[in-house]
UniProtKB/TrEMBL annotation:
Residues 171-269 form the HTH araC/xylS-type domain. One of its GO terms (molecular function) is DNA-binding transcription factor activity. This is AraC-like DNA-binding protein. InterPro entries: AraC_XylS_family_regulators (IPR050204), ExsA-like_N (IPR054015), Homeodomain-like_sf (IPR009057), HTH_AraC (IPR018060), RmlC_Cupin_sf (IPR011051). Pfam families: ExsA_N, HTH_18. It comes from the Bacteria. The keyword Cell inner membrane does not apply. PROSITE patterns: HTH_ARAC_FAMILY_2. Keywords: DNA-binding, Transcription, Transcription regulation.
Length: 272
């Protein structure tokens, strides 16, 4: 697996994956606005999944756990333009453009149909990635403000997300873990996502589940994989990434150790 990012300006970048696939599990610190140029990206979240291809445009709200699986397709590498909206940029924008709040937003990924404003905006960014020097700060500022302005014009509910500057608080641990156990993060990251230090996270987890996080996570991921193999007829190679395992051999070993038989036998039973 491999990937690279060209012209790594802190806030505007080109992501390029040239090998077979690239998997990453993220909880973005900042809202990100993206356009797929070529290739394909599957996004798996706790309650749904998405598949994006060339020309698709989306906004990822910050602090939402997601598994990203990026693949070249049709002989072309995976390429995407990504823009990060830092809080200081957003606060400056909304200090001059008061937000228009509507109904409560569900903070899911937002997708946008093709529109002349979007097409011209992303087309204007592509030449910047041929620069050998860094993009001037003033241009970065102008282009990010343009992006926010376009989203405001296309999405009447966007201010509910971009203008929400509330800080993360300690959240319900059981609810969070039951929805996000398939994401392969370390314990420190799970703690931060639930508003806890590592020590507090482990203590609260033991109290809630009467188990260690590591043992509980492996068990839940294996049970999810078992369900997908036996009830949905999927193949081991199709489920191991989505259920939090880094490679197929580790998944197969853990599955056989836990259930007493290899995951391939589940696929055979489902076919009968």
């Amino acid at each position: 697996m491999g990937g690279k990012e060209q012209n790594r300006y802190a806030e505007i970048l080109l992501s390029c994956i040239e090998e077979k696939y690239f998997k990453d599990e993220i909880a973005l610190e900042h809202h990100s606005f993206a356009r797929i140029i070529s290739g394909e990206m599957k996004v798996v979240q706790a309650d749904r999944s998405y598949l994006f291809g060339p020309g698709d445009t989306m906004l990822f709200p910050c602090n939402q756990l997601s598994t990203l699986i990026k693949n070249p397709k049709n002989g072309l590498p995976y390429k995407a333009i990504v823009i990060f909206f830092r809080p200081e940029r957003l606060k400056d924008f909304y200090s001059r453009n008061p937000p228009q709040f509507t109904q409560v937003d569900n903070y899911q990924i937002k997708t946008y149909k093709k529109h002349p404003l979007l097409e011209s905006f992303f087309a204007s960014l592509i030449p910047y990635f041929d620069l050998e020097s860094e993009l001037p700060e003033k241009i970065i500022s102008v282009k990010i403000e343009e992006a926010i302005t376009i989203l405001s014009a296309l999405d009447p509910n966007i201010d509910n997300v971009l203008a929400d500057f509330s800080q993360a608080e300690k959240i319900n641990l059981v609810d969070f873990m039951e929805r996000n156990y398939m994401f392969n993060m370390n314990m420190e990251r799970f703690g931060r996502m639930t508003g806890r230090s590592l020590t507090t996270f482990k203590r609260d987890f033991k109290k809630a589940f009467n188990n260690t996080p590591q043992k509980w996570l492996i068990q839940k991921r294996l049970e999810l994989a078992h369900h997908q193999l036996s009830n949905e007829g999927r193949k081991p190679i199709e489920v191991y990434l989505e259920t939090g395992f880094e490679n197929l051999s580790h998944f197969s070993f853990a599955f056989k150790k836990y259930f007493g038989y290899p995951p391939t036998s589940q696929k055979k039973e489902a076919d009968q």
